[in-house]
From TrEMBL:
<dbReference type="InterPro" id="IPR006442">
    <property type="entry name" value="Antitoxin_Phd/YefM"/>
</dbReference>
<comment type="similarity">
    <text>Belongs to the phD/YefM antitoxin family.</text>
</comment>
<dbReference type="Pfam" id="PF02604">
    <property type="entry name" value="PhdYeFM_antitox"/>
</dbReference>
<dbReference type="InterPro" id="IPR051405">
    <property type="entry name" value="phD/YefM_antitoxin"/>
</dbReference>
<comment type="function">
    <text>Antitoxin component of a type II toxin-antitoxin (TA) system.</text>
</comment>
<protein>
    <recommendedName>
        <fullName>Antitoxin</fullName>
    </recommendedName>
</protein>
<dbReference type="InterPro" id="IPR036165">
    <property type="entry name" value="YefM-like_sf"/>
</dbReference>
Length: 85
């Protein structure tokens, strides 16, 4: 992963962003030698957000199963049919 100082980002933002778009490699921005932020490509960020949404849905489903808060297939169809009219 590429690492840049925050001062480099201030001085060379256009070049750093161009490199980011070309390589698709995230850039770690540091301040005073410590990690401060990541720069990532917009498409990569949106894909990560979509994956996170899916994983959160899976986790909710697993919690529902673990706490026995589930409904049968027919009950689910009945509930959904009200929304699909």
């Amino acid at each position: 992963m590429k690492v840049e100082l925050v001062t480099s980002l201030k001085r060379q933002a256009t070049k750093i962003l161009a490199d980011l778009h070309y390589t698709k490699e995230p850039v770690l921005i540091t301040e005073h030698g410590k990690p401060s932020a990541y720069l990532i490509d917009v498409d990569d960020y949106e894909a990560m957000q979509n994956r996170l949404t899916i994983l959160e849905g899976i986790a909710r489903g697993e919690r529902a199963i673990a706490t026995d808060k589930v409904v049968s297939h027919n009950e689910a169809k009945d509930k959904m049919s009200k929304w699909l009219k």
